[in-house]
Amino acid sequence: MQEDLSKKFKKEFGADPIFEIIVPSRVNLIGEHSDYYDNFVLPMAIDNVGMISLIRPRDDDKIVMHTMNLGELEEPRIELSTQDNRSKLQWVQYVQGAIAMYAEEYTRKALKGFDILINSSIPIGGGLSSSSALTMTSLTALGLANGFTNGDKKLELEVAVKLINEKGNQGEAAKLLDKLCMMGCWAEYWYGTRGGAMDHFAITVSKAGNATLLDNRSFKYEYTPIPNELAIIICNTSVRHNQLYSGFGDRKKSAMSGFAKIHRHHSELINIRDIDIEMLERYADELVEDEYKKMKHPITEKQRVFKFVDAIKNNQFEKLGQTINEAFLSLRDDYDVSCEELNIMQEAAVTSPGCYGARITGGGFGGCIVAFVDRKEKESFAAAVKKKYDDNPEIKNAGVKADIWEAHSGDGLQIKIL
Prior knowledge:
This protein is an alpha+beta fold. The protein is built from 13 helices and 14 strands. The chain has helices at 2-13, 90-106, 130-146, 157-166, 171-191, 198-205, 248-263, 277-282, 289-313, 317-334, 340-350, 378-391, 393-398, and strands at residues 19-30, 40-57, 62-67, 77-81, 114-120, 148-149, 154-155, 210-215, 221-225, 230-236, 355-361, 368-374, 403-406, 414-417.
């Protein structure tokens, strides 16, 4: 595969690539719509679905991109400058967000560009972090062309690549990875979304065989081993969402409106993370229903994250499944980010062989369900879910079909020098 991509790169750009950037997709096991309230999350990088890019740094400010499966137009080749104004193409704006954040970090008006060939197997709009993968790919390419910083100093290229590849949750590696991930989050703010930094950490710092328990206030993280007996299955509804127009921001606005009311009584509070269910109930009469429900989800989700971590550490799969199903109901009924296709898919999953529990993963409004399944039953489970979903009359009318596959835990961002 890499040899074919190298030939394609040389054909497109007239020279061999110098670096390969591998960015996985991610699935959040639990802690959805929680990171931007400073809460805890438990994502996992997926090594069998991701974005592979070949790049060659340039000496000028041009970025020439050949995308094999990302473009909104038939023409896959896009040329821009690191100084260009905002593009009309949404996916190009993720690249430009990365440029803006890198330029701010280095206080430069212009950055050197690069030639890049992008090949992605991440379903766009599926809730598996396709946009953040493009953002982190772009930041890494800019680093390879302009140098990396850990926030305090510029690093030698070989040192930076080694630190990124080896990972770690302390020391120089953590400082560099933290800086990259936060620039990724800010780049997507520039684009227009208002999520947190979970996706960027998940696809950057993860280690194979583990999920990453991330504190979204301190951005400290620890690794949680995933039992071999557990299969993590992605069930894609094949319905795309667009967070920029999906009403995502309205949910956060309602939650923070409720938070402001409680904050008047407790000035020590920093974010919704600091409120427990008892405090929410104490001030429930001061909140409108939507404020109450939008706050209730992240408050109860924080409890579910630690309940889930305890269950997975102790191989308590029934408890794990119960927690996951509760998370789905909270996302559907309180945070209101489901849709009919997701509801149908979740019902198909939890009524199929070997399933402990299933819930929405990603932003919602379409996309994917993540299911936790007895590994011995995974083939029977996948076949049953697909049949139930595809045969549902509403799904037939929508003209979509399920895409079911197992997610394999992998490492985060990797850089290869070719």
